[in-house]
Specification:
Layout: E1 7-14, E2 17-29, E3 35-39, H1 53-62, H2 69-75, H3 83-95, H4 113-121, H5 134-147, H6 160-173, E4 180-182, E5 188-190, H7 194-206, H8 212-222, H9 224-227, H10 233-240, E6 245-249, E7 253-257, E8 263-268, H11 276-286, H12 294-298, E9 301-304, E10 307-314
Antiparallel strand pairs: 1-2, 1-10, 2-3, 2-8, 4-5, 6-7, 7-8, 9-10
Helix pairs in contact: 1-5, 1-6, 1-8, 2-3, 2-5, 2-8, 3-5, 6-7, 7-8
InterPro entries: Asparaginase_II
Protein name: Asparaginase
Length: 322
């Protein structure tokens, strides 16, 4: 079960007093793939949620999807629904001679607060286009077109597309899929482990140019805004650490890797996103990444009357690793 051997990963400190504690599972790999940072149980079975999207994008390229650059980053995205994101989704669909009505992800409004206000002010109902997984779903449909597969049933776990995704997840992680669920967007979700996900991200980050893994790594590395949106952790960490690829996931999941193979994966047990930036930044520092921007990228204030009165403090340092 997911709670087995979970360990404290962050303290919420208000005026010098520990107010709350977040537990979780954390793993860090060095460039050789050896585990050099371990909290909780990195081998625990879990759902990586949207942190699985770069692996899904690799599977789609292997199956014949022809995307690169910003649009490939969007295929691996949990985008904020800002105007360029939605235009990119339309482009992916149009290239495959498909439309927004072909999307089967759960209708929603944009994640970005300003985009959501604009959307609601226009009296627009929730839409599959605006939902944060629409780039992945558009790419899934485009993959079906490229491979000659049925588009109406692309979310079925038995569909050739989803079987290809499952096989790729097992290949990149080295972990057999033990459970299949339905993700929030309606697509199949395959289980793995934090350690397996870290291995997969390391493989993507270190892959040769032109390979499916290398193409996904290059797109995510060069276009973090397309993977997330304005102000998101993925964007802040990419700005702080040159060469980093990273992806967030629901329920407190985050994965990141560097071109030299160093990788970090975090799963927060209570599902909160609050400690993610602080813990991931600290884990990257523990792996020897000393970029000056990491401190601000990981800073998460605790507010009192709108002013900082404390912060989220990671329980991660070199002496605690292992």
């Amino acid at each position: 079960m997911i709670e087995v051997r979970a360990a404290p990963v962050a303290h919420v400190v208000r005026a010098g007093v520990v107010e709350s504690v977040h537990h979780g599972h954390l793993v860090g790999l060095d460039g050789s793939g050896a585990t050099v940072l371990s909290f909780g149980d990195p081998a625990v079975t879990f759902f990586a949620r949207s942190a699985l999207k770069p692996l899904q994008a690799v599977a789609m390229l292997r199956a014949g999807l022809d995307l690169d650059g910003e649009l490939l980053a969007l295929a691996a995205a949990s985008h904020s629904g800002e105007p360029a994101h939605l235009d990119g989704v339309r482009q992916i669909l149009e290239r495959a001679d498909l439309g927004v009505d072909d999307l089967q992800n759960t209708p929603d409004v944009p994640l970005d607060p300003r985009a959501a206000v604009t959307w609601r002010a226009a009296d627009r109902p929730p839409s599959s286009l605006a939902q944060n997984c629409s780039g992945k779903h558009a790419a899934m449909l485009a993959t079906c077109r490229a491979a000659g597969w049925d588009t109406a049933t692309y979310r079925d776990p038995g569909h050739p597309l989803q079987q290809a995704v499952r096989a790729t997840v097992e290949d990149l992680t080295g972990v057999p899929v033990a459970y299949t669920a339905v993700d929030g967007c309606g697509a199949p979700l395959f289980s793995s482990s934090p350690a397996g996900l870290a291995r997969a991200f390391a493989r993507i980050a270190t892959a040769p140019p032109g390979t499916p893994e290398g193409r996904v790594g290059a797109a995510v590395r060069a276009h973090p805004w397309w993977v997330a949106g304005t102000g998101r952790e993925v964007v802040r960490l990419a700005a702080a650490v040159p060469g980093l690829i990273s992806k967030d996931g629901a329920e407190g999941v985050f994965a990141a890797a560097l071109p030299d193979g160093r990788a970090v994966v975090l799963k927060v047990l209570d599902g909160s996103a609050r400690p993610v930036a602080a813990v991931v930044a600290a884990a990257l520092r523990t792996l020897g990444i000393e970029e000056p921007g990491l401190a601000s990228a990981g800073y998460t204030p605790v507010l009192g009357h709108g002013d900082p009165v404390g912060s989220v403090e990671p329980v991660v340092d070199g002496s605690a690793a292992g």
